[in-house]
Specification:
Helix 2 crosses helix 6. The longest helix is centred in the first third of the chain and has 16 residues. By secondary structure, this protein is of the alpha/beta class. The N terminus is likely disordered. A hairpin with a 4-residue loop joins strand 5 and strand 6. The protein has a 5-stranded mixed β-sheet with strand order 2-1-12-14-13, sandwiched between helices. Strands 3, 4, 7, 8 and 11 form a 5-stranded antiparallel β-sheet that branches. It binds zinc ion. Zinc ion binds next to helix 6.
């Protein structure tokens, strides 16, 4: 039982290896713990061309500042203000997670723009037929007991289908007597003609909907699509990050600039798989975290990016490790990263014998120095065109896993060489060629030839 419990804590079902292996500590090498860069596409949705009611898409000062603040909050984390139950300070200063702006697209679409609005409810028993109108009391009578339903549905009612009384009304009081309901209106009723019906306004909340991602991004899964939108409803800025492929941010034009960046950092955290911290997702988080856009402190309210506090400048090592674990193993999610783009500045040189027990995404060449052995026990994702250089007498052991490309491309090839400096020349004698050894079904995939 104890063993089973331990395994539950240490391994995900897919056996990605422990979260702890993925935490980028200050001393962790960038070879094994590279910076994870998420590609983002920004969609600025104007209500109409003449009345955008949004951030302007050419406002690069605003947009660049937003990315700078968001990246800074993931790069320069502060220590936690509120500690977990065991009072240990769990702290990594840099999450090694970044967001890159690749494209800005403009859309003119009032439906896509309006994320929260009110519609006239036409569902269930609604609209209700008006029975009679008492002009002296400015009161509408309905058959049936609708008091509690109407009281719970907001503060505006709509009369339609009437000759004279059509319009929006605010009830002063709603009460039931016998089997009838009476609504006293604030605005004067114009006629005692009882034709027409009455209903409430239903809040339509598309904050977390996927319609914009489907319609404006073609359900693309190669980046995170960020939608700047608006809303007819009167509430302040809001957002939702329900998917690894998109998030919505509404009313940033009416919000504080830094508050918008803080909201964006939080929603991006959701996109990457983090949950709220009111209850801990990982055991290095506090047992409780008070919510409500209040200052952070050391007794009730954390400074976690995934909390509702005014600080939002901390992520726990396991929150960070969890993201790196997902984005090193999940072959669909890896496609949203820029880590598959070849960059020779990110060459990985194996200077000592090493065993990799975590999945690793490499964007440069992998070079195993003369005489050294690298044992790979979890998937290695190579960039397009990147090679593996096996210098003389080196060994690459692929043990029960694959070396592959997860960006729909092909990585390069295995190059046998004397040394990386003499990478175009093979060693003189075959016996000292570098070797690749496959164990437990280990294999190369998606490589050239
Ligand atoms: Zn949230």
């Amino acid at each position: 039982m104890l063993i089973a419990f331990f395994q539950l804590l240490s391994f995900t079902p897919q056996d990605y290896g422990a979260i702890e292996n993925y935490i980028p500590y200050e001393f962790s090498s960038y070879s094994t713990h590279p910076v994870l860069t998420l590609k983002t596409i920004l969609h600025v949705v104007y209500r109409t061309k003449n009345d955008p009611r949004n951030i302007m898409a050419d406002n690069m000062d605003f947009i660049n500042q937003q990315y700078q603040w968001v990246n800074n909050s993931y790069k320069n984390l502060k220590p936690p203000t509120l500690l977990p139950e065991n009072k240990v300070i769990h702290y990594v200063p840099d999450s090694r997670i970044r967001f890159r702006l690749d494209t800005i697209l403009i859309h003119y679409d009032s439906i896509a723009w309006d994320r929260i609005y009110y519609g006239i409810a036409m569902n269930g028993s609604f609209p209700l037929k008006i029975d009679s109108i008492n002009l002296e009391k400015n009161e509408v009578k309905l058959i049936g007991r609708w008091e509690s339903v109407l009281n719970s549905r907001g503060d505006s009612l709509s009369i339609g289908g009437s000759n004279k009384n059509n319009g929006v009304y605010h009830p002063l009081s709603i009460y039931s007597r016998e089997n009838n309901t009476y609504i006293v209106m604030k605005e004067p009723l114009k006629s005692k003609d009882s034709s027409g019906h009455i209903t409430y306004f239903r809040k339509i909340d598309k904050n977390c909907w996927k319609d914009n991602w489907e319609k404006l991004a073609g359900s693309d899964k190669n980046a995170i699509h960020i939608f700047y939108t608006g809303a007819t409803s009167s509430q302040p800025a809001f957002g939702c990050g329900p998917s690894p492929y998109f998030l919505n941010l509404s009313k940033l034009n009416l919000n504080g600039d830094y508050a918008s960046a803080s909201l964006t950092a939080h929603e991006l955290g959701h996109c990457l798989g983090l949950r709220h911290t009111n209850y801990p997702q990982f055991n290095d988080l506090p047992a409780r975290d008070k919510f409500g856009f209040i200052p952070c402190d050391s007794t009730t309210t954390s400074n976690n990016i995934m909390g509702y506090n005014k600080c939002r400048n901390y992520l726990s090592p396991k929150q960070i490790g969890f993201i790196h674990q997902k984005y090193s193993n999940d072959t669909a999610l890896i496609r949203t990263t820029a880590n598959g783009e070849f960059n020779p500045l990110n060459n990985v040189k194996i200077k000592w014998n090493k065993t990799w027990n975590k999945a690793t995404v490499i964007s440069g060449h992998l070079i195993i120095k003369p005489g050294r052995t690298l044992t790979i026990k979890k998937m290695v994702s190579m960039a397009k065109g990147a090679n593996i250089y096996l210098c003389r007498k080196s060994k690459l052991i692929v043990d029960g896993t694959v070396i592959t490309n997860n960006h729909g491309e092909k990585w390069g090839t295995i190059v046998l060489c004397k040394s990386y400096r003499k990478k175009n020349r093979k060693p003189y004698r075959k016996i000292i060629y570098g070797k690749i050894i496959y164990k437990n079904g280990g294999a190369l995939k998606n490589h050239t030839n």
